[in-house]
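User: Hello! I'm new to structural biology and keep hearing that structure can be predicted from sequence alone. Could you demonstrate with Kelch-like protein diablo? Please show me the input and the output so I can see what each looks like.

Assistant: Of course. The first part below is the input, the amino acid sequence of Kelch-like protein diablo. The second part is the output, the predicted structure written as tokens.
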Amino acid sequence: MCAPVAAEMKDSTVNGADNKDDMLTASFQATQLFTDDGRQREFTPAAAARAMPGLREQRKTRQFCDVLFRATNGPEVWAHRFVMCAKYSSCYTLFAIAKETMAPEQRKEVGCPPVRALIEDLEGDMIELLVDFAYLIPMHERIGTHNIVRVLELAEKLKLIQVRDHCMKTLKQNLEPENCIQTYHLASSSGYEYLAGEAHRYLVRSFDAVGVYFHSLYRVAYERDRNETRFSETTVKKKKHAGMKKTTRKHYLAKFLPLVRFVRCSVTEFEKVLSYPEVQRDQSSLKVLTVIHKTLTRPSMEVGNVAGIDLSQKQWLRPRIPKDILFVFGGWTSGATNSMHTFNSRAQKWRVMGSQYTPPRAYHGAAVIDSRIYIVGGFNGRECYHSVVCFDVPLARWSAKANMEYARCYVSVAVLQASAEHKPQGGNIYAMGGFDGRSRTKTVERYDIKANQWSLVADMVEVRSDASAASAHGRIYIAGGFTGAAVLDSVESYDPSTNAWTRIVTMSSPRSGAKVVAHEDMLYIIGGYNGVTRLSSMEQLDVKRARTTELPSMLQAKSNFAAIVLDGCIYTIGGFDGITTIQLVEKYDIAARGWYTAPQISTNCSASTACVVEDIADPSKCFVNAEAYNHLLCINLLGSFVDIAVRQPLTTLVAQKGVLNFTHSPARA
């Protein structure tokens, strides 16, 4: 226990906290009172929620308050000693020094005289904030986000873990274009990797808005781009910022140009950059662009310093690793498979990640929530599954989840998000219809991720297997399917608020084995089988108006393919053309309203699933070779059974086998 620097008891015959002459006065350093190493004494959340409103009201009128905090300058702050002790364990000193001033016979009494605590090394507003925090008053309500940095520095000084975590949470929740760069630098310099990553991801997602702060943006872009090649795609259109605040940005333009991935630009786009007046008037920028232009035609050309800028790394020749990764899992070739592929949309390349440590599946469903891929149901060639497995992308780890009530292959899967913003965080997974090996069904199950539990909800209007579903406007829409006797042309909608299904529209053609994808609250229904032939047609469903519109057809008719939206394009992967499984990949540019061929997947496959995982912290892990990835999965398989102390050496082994930019062990929790 830390003793006070000085203590004296004032003589008075009057009792009560309102009489300051009756108080014991003691001087403290901040570290003698405000530490939270005894958090085990803290109120439980339920107890605090019940008690704190009343205690805050008592504090306003000083009722039962028995400690007065005061700085050398600033206001006096009253509080209840037991509340302070529950939050800051060192505040038990306030009871100890009060007991020491009491006569032996008085120490047996429950009460203690009030204490005036003089804090020598804290400002008054900081004391008030720490006391308010003990009463569960959020700090941002008191000081705003602009002063939260002061509190964070104080929390580090006093080692107040809860206060520090609260500050970082507040900074994350209040990220804005004008403060995200400052937050990134603060977090990076202080070693807060998680907060730095969140600030950087916000910057990437909001590049246009953040770009006006060009002088700060360059520091972030240059530092991270040199080391990680993960900065947001800086396309030619971003050069519009070069004309804003010209006197400020002219200094940075030449340094910023080498960070642009010109390898993805056409000759016309590159010439546009050269034609900008800001570039033409800047000799340094012209010199840099001249060298870049030469290396685009001669990549092996060696370069050094140009206009005082190091160009030796030639970063403009390497496509960036995208922050959103397309995964394809399982499917049917000569039988069910358990292989996984990833697609780099920047480099337009597929990577085979090899067989996974989970059983082979085809005709299954997939959903993504919180950077985890959930694989639902399916068929292995002998039996239909009711099992569910989960792949944690950041950890590269598979785990089993609760089984569904019914076995389902040809199952349709969709996610209803928990947040109003429809962000891929939280939510429930719905498994609809399918085939259990004997009969087709119209039953629907909902999976609660937190509870790891499935529960039945309302049945669909019609029996459906081999249908497809997606969510929009807070509802689920399922289209087509097979009843066992007929191919369906209907679309149903599920409203979770009423737990009811409603038939809403009829498609232009019956479709089984089709795919439904959602983009900007529009649904796209693609391909399938109409009972006679495979289809290449596509129609758009406006769910607000319950109306379908014909769109351009795919290049090849097919069914049972994988489909997903990535970077404003719909990708269709593999499938069955009526004769054989195929490896064709097509891409539909939604804005341009046209279909194009994309790089083929490595193997013929149908009945697979595709999904996109957004904002991956280290996307380089998703582009390792199959041998290295199997080593990685072996490590995580071992790590799930024993807490091995040699994970870092094993991680080093994996890195030697070919993992790109592998800097830490994903086996750690």
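User: So the tokens describe the shape?

Assistant: Right, they're a compact way of writing down the 3D structure. Reading them back into a model, for example: The chain has a mean pLDDT of 79.
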